[in-house]
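Hello, quick one for you while I still have it in my head. No rush at all, and the record is pasted right below.
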Amino acid sequence: MTKKDYLRKLRRSIKDLPDHIIQDILRDYEEHFDDGRRQGLSEEEISRGLGDPKEVASEYLKMYPHAKKQKKESKVWDFLWFVFVVIGGLWVLVNFVPFIFELTGSIIGGLLGFIFFMVSLILVVVLIAIIYGLVKGKQVFNFVVGDRKFTFKTSDEDRNQRVYESQTIQQPVSDIAVESHLSAVIIQQEDRNDILVELDGYSSIRRSPLQVEVSNGHLSIIDEVVSQTIVNGNLNSNLKLWVRVPQKDFNLTVKSSIGSVKINGNFNSCTVDANLGSLKIDGHQNVSEVKCDMGSIRVYNNFGSANFTASMGSIKWYQANNNPHRFVVQKTMGSFKNNSQKIFNQHNNTYQSQDGMEPEVKIRSKMGSIRLEG
């Protein structure tokens, strides 16, 4: 299956999800194909490694039952407003067009006819724009049904609330724990002495204030959503949770629900539990425990002890110059790729880690390809 066919089938199977989530999913799988081509694989080989697009889509749909239901309800209201606009437009034509023709026999009639023609032309353009907005799922009107307010506007930014929070931590910290819901988490080591936490972006979901606490050297950062509360009847979120830290050997723990995770830096330990979202780790980690229920895992550079568990999605390891003492990969669906010479040194027909210790290596896959080169 070619890349175009794979993405088309995947898009068709997840069409009931919100548009921004569909774009995130398709963008992630486009990156899979790009990475595969750089590895010298054909599009057919990449498609087989990713799994059947219908099975992939079914897993995503299970993760978004409320979003799927809401989008269906939104389509019903869009259709009702479309019918309202069409009926209103017909009423205008029936009542005003004959009047325009009656006045065209005189100069005044001609002038008024021209004016009405221009007004009608503008109304037609506006009507087309409204219909286009409804078909595309944009928001155009405001109305209230019972105690619930529905807001229809013309852009995603209009229907979203601007979100920005920032806190600076000066206290000494050795452990960092981050818990995030519906936000992309980015942890970045920088040349600084303090820790800066920022939540930035747009969201239609009501959120609790960012919770940042320090106790006995433990920094806790919690970004959570107010339960089941959606602003303006729409589900949309485009937020980034930045955690900028100094260059120290922190013990890092990240738990993310629906959102990508990026970790850039060298940490003593790195524990990540990601539920739906791609994961990228770049830097040396002495101990790594990574679990990703759905989404790709990409690892760059050095690891001491690594344990990867992926329910669905590819696992790729780049530039692993330092051999791990313990290397465990467990996955249900998706591909795993690595150059075996980067995991082990070959000496006298035996494999061992760079420090001479006998490595523990386990790779388990229920569905998908495993590729070791070298």
Remarks:
- The longest strand covers residues 303-312.
- The helical segments are 3-13, 19-38, 43-50, 53-63, 65-103, 107-135, 156-159.
